[in-house]
């Protein structure tokens, strides 16, 4: 006999089913890894994002050696010497005279974790005067790995925050429009259509241009988020409005009315929750759009500015074929954007497949 | 007398698509005069499209009335709104036909019941829970259903939950809109017995809406026959079954009790001004002027 | 005594893969003579619809007939191959379903769908088929058949759809018709008309019928004999009049009372 515990909602059963799928577990783990890296960027990265050393400009990813002249030893790196070959191309040669062992909890640049806790211990690194670039360095000798971790903070959160705002606006407007119908519906939907009419990217550029150019990076971040959510809510609202239109006819909504429950409360407790199966999937699948949008903006120099990092503006260095050919590691941020987008898409698809029967009001597949 | 309907009308305009011109009007409820007495079970019978469900929705104010008055327990509900309407609503509750749709699938039974009692400020949460358990006992449900979800129950059980929910606000008047029509035939009788029991215990008045005369005669004190938005005959149950006067009532009875129907389709002409007139002994029939 | 048209022996149906579980249909035996109308009566879950589907070997893949023989015109249709079954369904045995809306394909007109049935089971040419369709629609009481043939299922009222479905089923002149809750979704007067129609068709086309119902009122109005089912088991059977006047089993009594007759 089953224990008399609280039974699972159909939603919880669906979540349990999802966790069984290997694709879901992999993608979720990858994303959790990314977000973890972004959160603890201060500690996990060997250097601050603006720590430069022109002696290491475009330094390739450094090899970590485990064998020292035939004998196994603790991991270490050699110093890198910059030389030029006959074509005046940069070539880095390992300087075997300088050995720098890899240390854990090494002292390094100071930081303020989440603007609260001061510290200067980093997860790994090498002591001065050595430098450790496991993924190489950019044109100014800034460690790419560190900048990627800091950049993740912008690129990965802009989608979440933007989507959260769109979600709220879209659900509320769609719910209200569908529930009341009549002129309320008409007006709200025309507003929606106005927003949908304008090509997203150009609206974004226009709004960005309207924002003053001399803002701090944080303020720019918020503006970008607001601009994105401005565009994104409309298509969600339209679909939610359609669902709300049919959901308001359900008997349990009529029951709530006969009890005397207010319209807003009915929309929030009886109608909108039944749209979650759709909206969660829609949101999940739109996050990649936000990530790519931010990347595009930053690439064009309209988003996060140097020295602050975002995966988008890290890629701006990769806009030249010359650089790509000779310093291919600067494409790594692109690879990560690609991976994050794929993970979100796979998760969104899996969510939709699982929640689809719920959408139609049937029981979950378990 | 607990409910009085005076010349209640509800018209639905049929509009053209683009320019919203009114082409025609569907006269769903076309001048209903009805008095329901305290403690009785009045059944409203009629075929699909006669307007009985629309009338039910007008009484609980789910639809706005176009003309006429609704007077409940001495209070005129017609123009009531806001808090006064909300208070009045607690007294008139409705049980719907479809047991699968009348409970929100995302709500636990506890939440369903508490929602019904949300405006009862006089008792606290613990007392509310106590009352809920009382209600469960009254409708024959065990206490442990509190934390479960609607989809875990059968149609009959869900209808009991719906009845418990309807009784949560201590109503005096219950409208049952085809409340047993979707239930398994053996369960129907159980629910009807439950309702009779509750009526005796709580002194409720019922308006029972159905298209099934054979079910209706088991529990009604009076029966009203509805056709094209009007009540064409009203009498005590036995009187109606034994001495039907209107041709349509006779048709309905013959079809329901003996499965006999005439080959020619009869056209019962009712104009907007036909009124229900008293003949004798509480037996009313419609007269066209 | 002539051989029965349909003879069901020891029919047992269970959920596939669960051999020791409760039966959906538990060792049912009954037979149907030609021109007889038999009612299978029971509440939901009693197995009546499953029995009806099994006669046409249309069980859902989740169910399995673990035992029994179904003799139709002295042949055990359980042993029929695919081709024989296809000829049987619609040709010799017709089935009327409860929900006329889902019995028709919403994408095609009524006329088209009835014609399909005629195309497959008869050798009539196009003109003859068109005439037959109009004739059939008239017989089932659809006024203005010429207009109805061009309509789509959703454009007709429930009663009309029901009649159209009956027209399609009798178009191939089957010997046996199985009707699954034919009147449950209809209004009172439509129900009575439908029963009148069934009686008329039975006479005109020499039909034998199995009615699957939960309403003893229909039994009283139409059936010659009745089989009462409860949870897959046959609890009572006999001539309709006898069972109605002297019900034996408690389920039978409850069903009769529920019907309010």
Structural summary, described in words:
The complex is a heterotrimer of chains A (366), B (289) and C (261). Chain A is an alpha+beta fold. Helices cover 57% and strands 14% of the residues of chain A. Chain A is built from 13 helices and four strands. Chain A has helices at 10-20, 22-39, 41-44, 144-180, 182-197, 200-210, 217-247, 251-259, 263-271, 276-299, 311-315, 321-326, 332-359, and strands at 65-68, 71-84, 90-113, 117-126. In chain A, a hairpin with a 3-residue loop joins strand 3 and strand 4. In chain A, helix 7 packs antiparallel against helix 10 (276-299). Chain A is elongated, with a radius of gyration of 26 Å. The model of chain A is unreliable at 362-366 (pLDDT under 50). Chain B has 289 residues and is an alpha/beta fold. In chain B, 33% of the residues lie in helices and 28% in strands. Chain B has helices at 52-59, 82-89, 109-116, 125-139, 155-167, 185-202, 213-219, 237-242, 247-258, and strands spanning 3-15, 22-36, 41-45, 67-72, 75-76, 92-95, 173-177, 205-210, 222-227, 230-236, 275-280, 283-287. In chain B, strand 1 and strand 2 form a beta hairpin. In chain B, helix 3 packs parallel to helix 5 (155-167) and helix 4 (125-139) crosses helix 5 (155-167). The two termini of chain B are 28 Å apart. In chain C, strands 6-7-8-3-9-10 form a six-stranded mixed beta sheet, with helices on both faces. Chain C has a four-stranded antiparallel beta sheet with strand order 2-1-4-5. In chain C, helix 4 packs across helix 5 (126-139) and helix 4 (110-121) packs parallel to helix 7. The longest helix of chain C is centred in the C-terminal third of the chain and has 18 residues, at 188-205. Chain C is globular, with a radius of gyration of 18 Å. The model of chain C has no long low-confidence stretch (mean pLDDT 89). The interface between A and B is medium-sized, with 23 and 33 residues.
């Amino acid at each position: 006999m089953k224990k008399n515990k609280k039974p699972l909602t159909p939603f919880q059963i669906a979540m349990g089913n999802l966790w069984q799928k290997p694709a879901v577990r992999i993608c979720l783990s990858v994303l959790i890894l990314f977000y973890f890296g972004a959160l603890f960027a201060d500690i996990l990265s060997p250097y601050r994002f603006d720590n430069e050393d022109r002696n290491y400009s475009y330094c390739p990813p450094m090899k970590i050696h485990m064998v020292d002249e035939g004998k196994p030893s603790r991991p270490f790196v050699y110093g890198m010497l910059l030389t030029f070959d006959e074509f005046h191309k940069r070539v880095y040669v390992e300087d075997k005279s300088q050995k720098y062992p890899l240390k854990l909890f090494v002292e390094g640049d100071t930081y303020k974790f989440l603007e609260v806790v001061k510290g200067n211990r980093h997860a790994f690194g090498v002591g001065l005067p050595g430098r450790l670039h496991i993924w190489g360095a950019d044109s100014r000798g800034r460690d790419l790995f560190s900048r990627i971790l800091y950049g993740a903070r912008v690129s990965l959160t802009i989608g979440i925050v933007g989507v959260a705002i769109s979600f709220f606006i879209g659900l509320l407007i769609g719910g209200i429009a569908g529930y009341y119908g009549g002129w309320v519906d008409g007006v709200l939907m025309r507003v929606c259509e106005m927003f949908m009419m304008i090509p997203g990217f150009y609206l974004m550029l226009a709004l960005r241009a309207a924002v003053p150019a001399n803002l701090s990076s944080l303020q720019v971040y918020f503006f970008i988020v607001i601009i994105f959510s401005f565009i994104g809510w409309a298509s969600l609202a339209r679909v939610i409005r359609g669902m709300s239109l049919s959901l308001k006819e359900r008997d349990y909504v009529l029951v709530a009315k006969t009890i005397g429950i207010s319209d807003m409360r009915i929309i929030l407790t009886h109608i909108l929750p039944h749209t979650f199966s759709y909206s969660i999937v829609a949101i999940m699948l739109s996050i990649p759009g936000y990530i790519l949008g931010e990347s595009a903006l930053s690439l064009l120099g309209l988003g996060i500015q140097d020295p602050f990092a975002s995966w988008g503006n890290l890629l701006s260095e990769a806009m030249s074929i010359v650089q790509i050919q000779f310093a291919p590691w600067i494409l790594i941020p692109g690879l990560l954007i690609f991976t994050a987008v794929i993970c979100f898409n796979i998760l969104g698809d899996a969510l939709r497949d699982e929640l689809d029967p719920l959408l139609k009001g049937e029981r979950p597949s378990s | 007398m607990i409910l009085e309907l005076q010349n209640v009308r509800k018209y639905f305009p049929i509009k053209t698509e683009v320019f919203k011109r009114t082409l025609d009007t569907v006269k769903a409820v076309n001048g209903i005069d009805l008095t329901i007495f305290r403690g009785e079970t009045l059944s409203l019978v009629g075929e699909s499209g006669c307007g009985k469900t629309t009338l039910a929705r007008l009484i609980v104010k789910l639809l706005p009335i176009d003309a006429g008055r609704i007077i409940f327990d001495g209070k005129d509900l017609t123009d009531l709104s806001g808090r006064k309407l909300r208070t009045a609503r607690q007294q008139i509750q409705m049980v719907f036909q479809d047991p699968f749709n009348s409970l929100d699938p995302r709500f636990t039974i506890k939440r369903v019941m508490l929602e019904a009692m949300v405006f009862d400020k006089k008792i606290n949460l613990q007392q509310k829970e106590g009352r809920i358990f009382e209600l469960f006992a009254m409708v024959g449900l065990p206490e442990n259903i509190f934390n479960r979800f609607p989809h875990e129950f059968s149609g009959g059980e869900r209808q009991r939950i719906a009845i418990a929910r309807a009784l949560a606000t201590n109503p005096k008047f219950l409208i049952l809109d085809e409340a047993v029509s979707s239930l398994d035939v053996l369960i129907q009788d159980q629910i009807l017995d439950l309702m009779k029991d509750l009526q005796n215990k709580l002194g409720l008045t019922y308006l029972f809406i159905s298209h099934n005369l054979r079910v209706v005669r088991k529990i009604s004190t009076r029966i009203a026959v509805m056709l094209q938005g009007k009540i064409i005959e009203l009498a005590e149950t036995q009187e109606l079954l034994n001495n039907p006067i209107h041709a349509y009532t006779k048709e309905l009875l013959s079809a329901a009790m003996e499965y006999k129907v005439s080959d020619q389709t009869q056209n019962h002409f009712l104009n907007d001004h036909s009124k229900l007139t008293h003949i004798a002994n509480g037996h009313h029939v419609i007269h066209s002027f | 005594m002539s051989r029965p048209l349909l003879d069901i022996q020891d029919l047992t149906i269970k959920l596939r893969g669960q051999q020791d579980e409760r039966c959906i249909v538990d060792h049912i035996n009954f037979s149907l003579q030609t021109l007889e109308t038999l009612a299978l009566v029971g509440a939901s879950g009693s197995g009546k619809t499953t029995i009806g589907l099994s006669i046409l070997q249309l069980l859902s893949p989740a169910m399995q007939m673990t035992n029994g023989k179904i003799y139709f015109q002295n042949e055990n249709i359980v042993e029929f191959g695919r081709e024989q079954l296809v000829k049987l369904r619609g040709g010799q045995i017709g089935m009327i379903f409860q929900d006329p809306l889902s019995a028709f394909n919403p994408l095609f007109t009524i006329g088209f769908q009835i014609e399909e049935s005629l195309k497959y089971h008869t050798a009539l040419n196009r003109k003859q088929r068109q005439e037959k369709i109009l004739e059939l629609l008239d017989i089932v009481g659809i006024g203005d058949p010429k207009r109805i043939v061009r309509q789509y299922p959703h454009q007709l009222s429930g009663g009309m759809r029901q009649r159209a479905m009956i027209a399609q089923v009798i178009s191939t002149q089957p010997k046996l018709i199985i009707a699954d809750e034919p009147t449950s979704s209809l209004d009172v007067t439509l129900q009575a008309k439908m029963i009148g129609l069934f009686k008329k068709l039975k006479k005109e086309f020499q039909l034998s019928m199995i009615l699957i119902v939960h309403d003893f009122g229909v039994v009283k109005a139409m059936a010659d004999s009745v089989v009462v089912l409860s949870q897959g088991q046959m609890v009572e059977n006999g001539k309709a009049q006898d069972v109605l006047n002297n019900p034996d089993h408690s389920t039978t009594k409850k069903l009769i009372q529920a019907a309010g007759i």
